[in-house]
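Figure-free illustration: sequence to structure, shown twice.
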Amino acid sequence: MQSKVVARFKDGSIIKGITNDFSPLKKHFHLELMDNQVIDVKVDNLKTLEIDLTELKGAFFVKDFEGNKSYDEEYGDVVIGAGRKVQVTFEDGEVIIGFALSYSPDRLGFFLVPADKKSNNERIYVINASTRKVEFL
């Protein structure tokens, strides 16, 4: 299944593309880049990148690539069957509230479903090493 992903790196850089092979059980996935996207890569005509999850803040699975930068997330929604409500504080200070089925600090990461159904993010694979704090609400 194809998914739209915004790969957000620990260094603040962002790459947008489509993936067919993301798995939380693997440390890498492939991202087919969107047209006209400028990235800092030293290979010409590269259309697909192998992304190392350990370099990411998170993999943001989105509804569309444009999003709405002026929209303020409201995190008051209940998502049935999505797990326990958690607040994630990333190392860069960003805070996201959502629901996680299987959070464990010993794993590479975990899926988070935002507690705002109007969010452009459908789900986020949060990399544990990029978080400052994860707390259950």
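We now fold a second protein in the same way, so the two outputs can be compared directly.
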Amino acid sequence: MKSDLPERTFSFAKRIVTLCAVLDDKLGTGRTLAHQLLRSGTSIGANIEEGQASQSEADFLSKYSIACKEARETHYWLRLLDAGDLVSKNQLQDLINECNEIIAILTSIVKKLKAKRS
């Protein structure tokens, strides 16, 4: 069965881009946070796509590990936005929940690959 993770992270990235476009229209903190969130939130799927074309298991593990780290960073920025009341709580909660699920999936994949290698 083929993984839907590349498509899922692409959809997540599209939602991040939309949120960041709104935040970027705000001055100061909103714009600064938007740039951080945009970078990390779109990097998750980009690293997964790179991992899909990896030339070795080590390369695959590296790309998925980076994707997991980027997902954790994205989670941080989303939580910070939530604490700052800069956008709708409902919109953020959906993104935070999806980010948590992506982190759980990536963590599981990375742990299994590391266990297989040792």
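Summary for the second example: Residues 89-117 form the longest helix (29 residues).
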